[in-house]
Amino acid sequence: MPGSVTRDKGRGTRNLRMLVFGWLLFLVASSVTAAGIAPDGSFDNMNCIGCHEKRDNELVKAWRVSAHGKDKSVADCVACHGNSHDGATVKARQDETCIACHGGQKNPVVHSYANSKHGLILKLERKTWNWTRPLAQANYRTPGCAYCHMHAAEHNVSAMVRNADLLQKDSKEMESIKDATRQVCQDCHAPRYISRLFDNGEKMLEIARMKVREARDLLSQARKQYTREELKPAEERYQEMRSVHLKNVYLGIAHQSPDYQWWYGQPALDGDLLRIKGAISELIRIKNASLAQQTQCAQ
Asked: Which residue spans traverse the membrane (predicted)?
């Protein structure tokens, strides 16, 4: 019938239009992905990795070997960037994102930087900065956490951090750290100035090591004469000396924070060493007094 033929033609035309429209959507979506335009949506960490491994596998590999991604992931894509592309880079570039995971404002890692010249300038000016700019080429007047540790989109945040025991000198590790650090510092500072800071920092750290080693050797000798219980106060002081105050010196050097190089660092180590010497001297005095009393009684 003529009417049914007309309806069939109409349905066929609509189906054809829908098919063409569908292909156009597919082509647009493909071109968006190919052009690098971020898709909309809410993502989890596996979504991010699945896409970015194809787009920039080196970036994902760098994250995997870092302290953030190695072994058990402690800071994944979503933790730093959020779960959408909207403002993802801006969020990751600001210190608040890092501080939340690194112990808060009073943690020495955070506090040492916050009290440095860099940290104070950032605190005063950060609200006026354009955080959409890349973390490179001195785009910011002073560096924050991400500018140094994720410079130029470097996702291995461990590249500038010492992993070895601070009491030990690791020349190979130190050269690697120097190379990574220079890439950041030279955005703003002259090479000679950077080298001078490295040399001064190593000398300062070696002075701190000498104090810790002296305390270690004193305790090593004392353990041959006194019980664990007798040496407990000195041993506890030594553990704080090595794990807290030596690290404070290192953080003061790394973050260029005078408060941590000196007040929380070297003088704190001096106090630890004096107290350990005092504790051992007291044990010696008590032991000598006891021996003298025994000698008198024997006479």
From this structure: none
